[in-house]
């Protein structure tokens, strides 16, 4: 099965092992399981990606590809042909078109699917520097919201995203689709809860000399625009329904709100995160302009 790591030799990839799949055999079932079963996906440390933008993103960011899947009976585009010609994947699975369609999550079957290896869950993947901006999301429940937040983090130059607590799966196909390829553009780390962050927070304070943790709440009285966000900042946003946990609020140096009008009691968490990240970026660009 392609989930095994036998195609690597002393860290150097061999030529891809071509596997022809003409029935719903073990290899087919392995891929199908990666698509639908969260537990087995994480046990295997692999997940399925499809679509030009997502596959290009994974390749550009240097993520390890375990396998590419395609139907040789279909005429492949120059893009797909070039990827397969330069592939360092452990395996290439050649499926019949009907079988590939069964594995595709799109209305029009993608010409290429990839099995991608999950990166290690290490907070040290997030680079530390004086302009640090990191987002922590506490127990996100919606794949669409999480994917949109990842996309916004990418757009506003966030250094890393931390997904905390019991949350929707980062590698669920719906989450991946919502990121439109941004999943691969920044370090994303999952942790059990705020206690897992404490040694890392101490390290940041030691290395940078300063750090603030800014929480968000619709009930806060401090306007986001009135708080200084120009120093190293970790922005903590809460669950769609319950907001930030008490444990995260206790870690915060400040809790801010986005002023809104109208009948809405609050913003969707993904929308709110985008606004907050824009404000961080606005203040820092303004500070750089003033300093220049």
Automatic annotation (TrEMBL):
Molecular function in Gene Ontology: RNA binding; RNA methyltransferase activity
Residue ranges of every copy of the tRNA/rRNA methyltransferase SpoU type domain listed in the record: 134-278
All copies of domain SpoU L30e-like N-terminal, residue ranges: 25-114
Gene Ontology biological-process entries: methylation; RNA processing
Keyword field: Methyltransferase, Transferase
Enzyme Commission (EC) number: 2.1.1.208
UniProt entry tagged with the keyword Transferase: yes
SUPFAM superfamilies cross-referenced by the UniProt entry: alpha/beta knot, L30e-like
Keyword Repeat: no
Top-level EC class: transferase
One protein family per Pfam: SpoU_methylase
Protein name: 23S rRNA (Uridine(2479)-2'-O)-methyltransferase
Organism the protein comes from: uncultured Thermomicrobiales bacterium
